[in-house]
Amino acid sequence: MNPNPQHPAGLLILSILWITIAGCAPIKPEQTQFVSAQDNQASRLGTNQVLRAATNNKLSANVSRSQPKQSTPTIQTGRYSTLAATPTPAQRDPLAVIIDVTIPETCVSIEQAIRFLLRRSGYELDTALSVDIIELMAKPLPAVHRQLGPMPLSDALTLLVTPSFVLQDDPIKRLLRFVPIDGNRGGRL
């Protein structure tokens, strides 16, 4: 069926086809025009106002040079999507990674479960442990603690030794230790 250009319905169909074809046509770079804010502003203002606006822009440019902008670089990952090129919170703090793990049956003690959770984190358990934590870590792992997550790794480690100990990390040495909670010290050494 060919649309009749003389008929009103034919005009409607032709206009829809024209809009569809025009919308699908690629835009060539030479067809794209960029108008800066200054050019747009200059076209709307008189000569004296343009000079004042240019002076104000120079003053604001000097102020912006003294204060560097804190912008995050973005990477275009698709036609309509971009991604900020910044590390994730878990990459900044490996203890903040969200885990959902089942501890295997071969880990029978709390210490083995803690070491199992730490095996890919880059952290190690501090060897200078207090007697209280050594006794707790020798205890068998409760069955309810075999399935952990989804939760941050730090919460999972704290869960295994609560309610008597607080997790402390040394990010420089990548060491973890558990400190007894004391009413006077609040879990601090």
Descriptive report:
The chain has helices at residues 8-24, 37-44, 47-66, 89-92, 110-118, 131-138, 153-161, and strands spanning 74-76, 82-84, 98-102, 124-125, 147-152, 165-170, 175-180. With 189 residues, it is of the alpha+beta class. The chain has a domain at 90-180: Phage tail protein beta-alpha-beta fold. It has a 3-stranded mixed β-sheet with strand order 4-7-6, with helices on one face. Strands 1-2 form a two-stranded antiparallel sheet. The protein is elongated. The termini are far apart. InterPro entries: Integr_conj_element_PilL. This is Pili assembly chaperone. Residues 59-80 are annotated as: Disordered.
Short description, anyone?
The protein is an alpha+beta fold. The protein has seven helices and seven strands.
Topology:
Elements: H1 8-24, H2 37-44, H3 47-66, E1 74-76, E2 82-84, H4 89-92, E3 98-102, H5 110-118, E4 124-125, H6 131-138, E5 147-152, H7 153-161, E6 165-170, E7 175-180
Parallel strand pairs: 4-7
Antiparallel strand pairs: 1-2, 3-5, 6-7
InterPro entries: Integr_conj_element_PilL
Protein name: Pili assembly chaperone
Region (Disordered): 59-80
Gyration radius over CA: 32 Å
Distance between the termini: 86 Å
The ordered H/E elements are: HHHEEHEHEHEHEE
Indicate the low-confidence ranges by residue numbers.
30-48, 59-64
CATH class descriptor name of the domain at 90-180 = Alpha Beta
What class do helices, strands and sheet pairing give?
alpha+beta
Largest sheet properties: 3 strands, mixed
Q: What is the overall silhouette? A: elongated
**Any idea of the CATH topology of the domain at 90-180?**
Phage tail protein beta-alpha-beta fold
Helix content: 25-40%
CATH architecture annotation of the domain at 90-180: 3-Layer(bab) Sandwich
| Total number of strands | 7
> DSSP strand (E) fraction?
15-25%
Mean pLDDT: 77
Strands side by side in the biggest sheet:
4-7-6
Q: How many helical stretches?
A: 7
